[in-house]
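QUALITY CONTROL LOG
STEP: pairwise intake check
CHECKER ROLE: data steward
CRITERIA: each record must contain a sequence immediately followed by its C-alpha cells, with no blank fields

ENTRY 1 OF 2
RESULT FIELD BELOW
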Amino acid sequence: MATGDRLSDEEIAELKVRLSTLKSEHRDLDEVIARVSEGGNFDQLMMKRLKKRKLMLKDQIAKLESQLLPDIIA
C-alpha cells in the first residue's frame, strides 16, 4: 500500500478489477449451484465444495470492498 495507508489511484484501479472478477466468479458459481441442484440427483460433495468456494469468494469480496471504502473515522 502507499504511504500513510492511503491507496494510490493505481492500487484502487487494481482492487476494482479484482473485485469485478470475484463478483463475476461468484455470480457464475451461483448459477452453477442452481443448475446442479435443479437436476435433483447431484453429488453432495461437489455441491459442498461449490458452496464453500462461493462463501470464500463472498469473504474476499467483502474484504476488498472494505479496502475501497474511504476511512470515515480519521
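ENTRY 2 OF 2
RESULT FIELD BELOW
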Amino acid sequence: MNNKQDKCEILIIGAGIIGLAIGAELSRKGREVIVLESENKTIQHASSHNSEVIHSGIYYKNDSLKAKFCVEGNALLYEYCTKHGIDYRRSGKFIVANNDQELSAIEKLQLNAKENEIEDTRILSNKELLTLEPNLIAEYALLIESTGIIDSHSFALSLEAEIENNGNHIITSSPVTSGRYNGNEWELTIHGDNSYIIRSDIVINASGFNSIDLAKKFGVENLPQITYIKGHYYKYHGKNPFNRLIYPLPEEHGLGVHTSSDMENSLRFGPDAEVVSKIDYRFDSSKERFSKFTDSIGKYFKGFDSNLLKEDFCGIRSRIGATHKSSDFSVLFQRDHDLEGFVNISGIESPGLTSSLSIAKYVAEDL
C-alpha cells in the first residue's frame, strides 16, 4: 500500500495484540482496515513483555470488563489456537496456601470463580499435591484447570496474516500525533519517515501506553488516570520441576512472583510489581529485588537453587485503578464520550492477551 493513500473505512492505532485482534476480527467481516503502529515492528511493548499465560478469569470482579472478557476470551483463544495451529499448553495452575488464613483466601477465590462461571476449580490437600507436584511446598492449593500457556508471537503473526490476507494493511513506523473530526470524517496526522494525513470514518485507539494521552488530543474528556506498573522476570537455568503453573496469593499490585513457561518448558519467575512514572525496560538488578524473588520462590519450590536464577527481562503494564483487585479495562464508545466514530481502549494489562479476541468481538459488534 502507498502510505500517501488518504482514506480508509476504519483506522486502528496500535499494532499490539489488541489492535491486531480487532483488525483481524473486522477483516473477517469484510471491513476495510488499516492498522497504524508507531514502532518499526508490531507487538513491541506489553504484548511481548509478559508471561504468555492464558488466564481463567478467577481474580476479577463479576461485573468487571476484565471478568467478562477474560472468561469469554479464554475459550475463544483455545479455539483459535486449535483452528490456526498456534502452539499452546493447557497446563492448569495452582494457587498455593500454607496456613488457615491463606486457605480462607483461596476459598474466596474459588467462590469468585463460581460467580464468574468458572467451574473447573477445586482445592487439593497436601497429600493430593505431593502426588501431582512432588516439588511443590503447599498445605493446600486451588487448582484452575483452564489456565495455560500460549506462543503469543505466533498468535500475533497469525492475526497479522488474517489482516493482510483479507486485503487490509499494517503500516509500521507511523506514529499518530493528532486527530480531528471535520464533521464528516476523521483526519489523522502521521509523523513518521514522511508526514501525511489519513482520513477515516472510524478510529479505534488501541495505542497502549499512549492511549490516554492520544485520546486527549482527539478531544476525549474525563478520561481515567493511568498508573504504570513495572515487572521484572528471572529465568531459572535448571530443569522445570513443575507440571503446572504455580502462583502465590495475589498482592496489591499483581499476582505475586509466579512461575511461567513456554513451549520448550523452560521456567521463568515473575513479575514483581513496582509503580513507575515512565516507560523504562532497564532491569533493576539490586540485591534487594533478587532476595525478594528468592524468598518468595523458596516458599513453594522444594529444592530451589538460587544460583540458577538469572535476570531475564522487564515488562510494563498500564493500569486503571489503584490496585490489581480494583483495576479494570476501559473501552469507550461514542455513547461514553460523544465523539462520533471514535473508540478508545486503555488500561489493557493482564489479562489482556487472554481477553484479546473477546475485546475484538465486543468492539466489532458495536461498529
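INTAKE CHECK: passed for both entries
DESCRIPTIVE NOTE, ENTRY 2: The longest strand covers residues 195-205.
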